[in-house]
Amino acid sequence: MTLAPPDAAVIDADVRRALAEDLGDGDLTARLLPEGQRTEAEIITREDMVLCGRDWAEACFRALDPGVRIDWLRSDGDRVAANTRLCRIEGAGRGIVSAERCALNFLQTLSGTATTTRRYVDALAHSKTRVLDTRKTLPGLRLAQKYAVRCGGGTNHRIGLFDAVLIKENHIATAGSIAAAVANARAIAGTRMVEIEVENLREFGEALAARPDRIMLDELSDDDVRAAVRQNAGKVELELSGGVSFERLAEIAELGVDFVSVGALTKHVRAIDLSLRVLRRW
User: Fold this and answer.
1) Sequence-distant (≥ 6) Cβ neighbours of residue 16 within 8 angstroms
2) 20 to 30 A from 10, CA-CA: which of 96, 207, 247, 251?
3) Are strands 85-92 and 69-72 parallel, antiparallel or unpaired?
4) Is 267 designated active site?
5) Which residue out of 136, 192, 226, 267 is catalytically annotated?
6) Separation CA 93–CA 36 (nearest Å)
7) CA dist 207 → 52, 219, 237, 239, 240 (Å)
8) Which position among 79, 85, 101, 226 bears the catalytic label?
9) Choice among 55, 65, 218, 239 that is catalytic
């Protein structure tokens, strides 16, 4: 699994939106700093975390001061202990204080997703089950959050509606049957993944006979999930979805599914507590 962030154009677009939202027609408070003043600062974490978002934070500072120097002491994906310095920054004082909030917003949000993902991944590490994200992401930051999930050791589900087929109840109703829906999806998707969601064992049997690439077990009881795993016998990938909480992971690990999808990784974001501290000015 690669940890490569999205293309630079995606990051630049994210940063441009964030800075425009924050700066408007200019940072009034930054004018309190003498023009031309140089500043050295550092970013530290106040809590244990998995780092994510370096490229976004760096792009914020460089957008306002192309000559800024940033020395990172940790890499995306690293576990970092509380009160650890993440980077040292040297550049134009006005640029640093103007970019600070946006840079920290990216770092704290993406590190929050990466840190939460790592907790889920660690809890399932002794099993075959891998952690998937969902499309329940912050608007405009999907690729960033999907990257954060990878930094936390998780696996990306489909990026959007364009790179895989996920057949749900309404699609089945329109097609007329599970078999017809899967057959139609195969014709449309080509080599892209075809997945179907089922809500009971009867639907599971029909889906298994249609042979999609993956079957999503949506809110089935644990007993029904076990029965589905036995019936499947490794024929297709199985994904468990719905009602997945951190507290349930120990039980889920014993069920034998290939994946568990967790909307909370990207939907219930708790930002990491970070701080930028100025060390000296000249």
Assistant:
1) 63
2) 96
3) antiparallel
4) no
5) 136
6) 7
7) 38, 16, 12, 13, 15
8) 101
9) 218
Q: Are 206 and 178 in contact (CB under 8 A)?
A: yes
pLDDT above 70 for 2: no
Q: Read off the pLDDT of residues 165-217 as tens digits, 9 standing for 90 and up.
A: 999 999 999 999 999 999 999 999 999 999 999 999 999 999 999 999 999 99
pTM, two decimal places: 0.95
- Tens-digit pLDDT profile for residues 50-85: 999 999 999 999 999 999 999 999 999 999 999 999
Active site residue 270: no
| Catalytic hit among 85, 168, 211, 248 | 168
128 in active site: no
Q: Considering the chain, what is the average pLDDT of its residues? A: 96
User: N- to C-terminal Cα distance for the chain?
Assistant: 44
Catalytic residue among 65, 197, 203, 258: 197
